[in-house]
Amino acid sequence: MDKTEFLKNQFLSLREEIAESKKRVFQTMGFGLVVVPGSHFLAQAYTLDTVTLSLPILVIVVSLVYLSENNAIMRCGRYIKQHIEPEINETIGWEQWIEDNAGIFDTRSVDKNMFYAFYLLFFVYFAGSVFIACRFAKANFDIFFTASMLGVYFALGVWFLIFLFKTGYVSLTTNTKKK
Questions:
Q1: pTM of the model
Q2: Most exposed of 78, 96, 103, 108 (fewest Cβ within 10 Å)?
């Protein structure tokens, strides 16, 4: 296999991986939209205490799956931009075009809006699930347990927020350096 054929196969394989990851991103978002409220409903209908108390953790897990898939998409784009597109002379590839034109008009607006929409949804679901879990704990357990649960949820939320701000940049660009 010569270099041209290898690059072509790499490109096609990465584009297929991107398409699969995009599909999983939308499935994850749909899963989060349905399963989190559904879990709350089932927990209340069947008095599943553990489910009620673990809803905030479920929200974080769904968000981490989303972030993982989004980062996989950007990693593929980064590889295409850095290792495949430079080998094609006198042609600007898609990934390079997106980054080069980011200042003229917002070529990453779809990525940004999807990212912001998901994390807005995450914060609403996380705050709501923490409220539900703490209200449940307050009604069924002593104040020490309730305060402990609130502390754990708060620590997880702060950790995730810090993690999101530290890694969010790679979810929105194929550039390797922050501007």
A1: 0.83
A2: 103
